[in-house]
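> call design_seq(struct)
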């Protein structure tokens, strides 16, 4: 029973009296509405979805959540999940979401980022080694152009080959065959899978900068679904939102897309947002890297609550000061312009052509 004096105790707001839109209870405690969360079928997707469902359950104990597994793959999940399967929200790894979402959809929450760095997972017979100490011509598995470009330059004694499939498949390919001496995966995904013990080395920014949005979960909703948007908005982590808006603005302005050798590093410190961004040729021999910063203190009190309909690089964050979000976005665009003025477009065009021709 969630009603008291006409206000639902489960939520801090009251949008659709006399029935609470979230727990759908009227004054007599009759409940009906179910919130449907779509998930892909991979173990990582399910774990990520469950963690968001658990957070929502804690925040809104009386809501009824239903998790719907979908066999949609790749980009198709973006619009089909929400429109055809009729779920209310979908949990994604932010780094898999394009910087422009299909019309009608938005990212209603970006959760606190975990370790955004990449990690080395060694073949069991190489335990104790590092990328540095692996023998000449050892084969490292990754299909990320970003990882391969940076690591080829940094560790010229190593070879890089594609490895595909979900995390379970990749770990199996590593352990049960002798094709790879090691593979590179995001530390965040490994931790979520409970495989932290397989991490032999975390790659710092001097070895390998991370992908835009890496390590953060995103909740995709219908942009016009204000009730759901309001509900998930409490999951936003303000620092993560600002970092990811800057990173996504950088990538979008470079016209990067998800499969180009572009890497970032961001930090929030003393109300400053720092963004380092880089582009690489496929073998890493050619690269451009710059850092810029901006203040993210909001001076204007009136900007504290921002218009719910405003989307920045696909993100709606009405509880994060609008001015700080604008500055973060501008930082990304400015850094992209700086790199473009130094020849980033040419590096990325060549990388894209060579990769398409492979
Ligand atoms: C994207 C890339 C990869 C994923 C490209 C990149 C890695 C592909 C590969 C855009 N999405 O990182 O340069 O290694 O062949 C992906 C993972 C996660 C989300 C797995 C991983 C989990 C971590 C997270 C695949 N997407 O990168 O190891 O939430 O950031």
């Amino acid at each position: 029973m969630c009603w008291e004096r006409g206000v639902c105790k489960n939520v801090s707001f009251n949008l659709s009296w006399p029935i609470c839109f979230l727990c759908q209870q009227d004054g007599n405690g009759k409940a009906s509405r179910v919130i449907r969360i779509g998930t892909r079928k991979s173990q990582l997707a399910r774990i990520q979805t469950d963690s968001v469902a658990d957070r929502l359950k804690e925040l809104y104990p009386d809501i009824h959540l239903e998790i719907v597994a979908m066999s949609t793959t790749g980009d198709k999940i973006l619009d089909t999940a929400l429109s055809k399967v009729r779920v209310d929200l979908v949990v994604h790894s932010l780094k898999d979401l394009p910087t422009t979402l299909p019309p009608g959809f938005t990212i209603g929450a970006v959760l606190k980022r975990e370790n955004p760095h990449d990690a080395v997972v060694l073949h069991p017979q190489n335990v104790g080694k590092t990328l540095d100490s692996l023998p000449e011509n050892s084969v490292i598995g990754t299909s990320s152009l970003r990882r391969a470009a940076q690591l080829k330059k940094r560790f010229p004694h190593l070879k890089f080959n594609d490895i595909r499939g979900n995390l379970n498949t990749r770990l199996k390919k590593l352990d049960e065959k002798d094709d790879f001496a090691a593979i590179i995966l995001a530390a965040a995904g490994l931790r979520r899978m409970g495989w932290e013990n397989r991490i032999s080395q975390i790659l710092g920014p001097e070895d390998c900068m991370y992908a835009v949005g890496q390590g953060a979960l995103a909740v995709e909703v219908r942009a016009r679904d204000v009730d759901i948007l309001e509900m998930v908005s409490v999951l936003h982590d303000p620092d993560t939102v600002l970092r990811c808006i800057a990173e996504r603005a950088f990538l979008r302005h470079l016209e990067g897309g998800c499969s180009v050798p572009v890497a970032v590093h961001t930090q929030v410190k003393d109300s400053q947002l720092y963004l380092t961004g880089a582009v690489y040729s496929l073998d890493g021999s050619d690269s451009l890297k710059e850092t810029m910063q901006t203040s993210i203190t909001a001076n204007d009190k009136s900007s504290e609550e921002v218009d719910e309909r405003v989307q920045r690089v696909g993100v709606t964050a009405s509880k994060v000061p609008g001015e700080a979000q604008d500055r973060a976005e501008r930082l990304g665009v400015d850094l992209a312009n700086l790199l473009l003025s130094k020849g980033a477009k040419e590096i990325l065009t060549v990388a894209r052509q060579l990769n398409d021709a492979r």
